[in-house]
Amino acid sequence: MSQGRAPGRSDRWGVLALLAVVALGLGALGANLLDDGVQEPRVVRGIAMPNNTGEAISLHADEDGRPGERGEGYVIAGASWAGPDGVWHDGTDTSCVGSEPDVGTRVELGLVEFSDPIVGDGTRVVWLRCLE
Asked: Is the whole model's pTM more than 0.90, yes or no?
C-alpha cells in the first residue's frame, strides 16, 4: 500500500498562485472583449419617410426636413424600436414609422459606424424611437 505525502504549505501556495494567474488572465480577456468594437450610438433626430415596405427610411433633418426634400437613407429593418408610448420592440415587427411613403414621423435614431472586410464601411441603425 502506497502512502502519499500530506499536502504541505508550498502546495497551497502553488494552487493559490495558479488561481491568481488564471483570474488575471480571465480579467484581461474580459476587459479586452468589452473594449473591442463597443461604441456609444450617435443620436440624430428628424422626420422619417418610410419606403413602401417600412424596411428603410429617408431621414430629413428637423430644421429643414419636409416631405419631398432629399434625406439621408437608412435601413431600419431589424432595429429595436419604441413608439410614442415608450414600449420597446425587438425589431421583428414593422416599426412605428409604418409603410406609407407620404407620411412623415418625427423620430430619434441611434446610429453606429461599422467596418466589415466583406460588406465595407457604413452606418447601422441600432434603435429607432418615434417621438410622435
From this structure: no
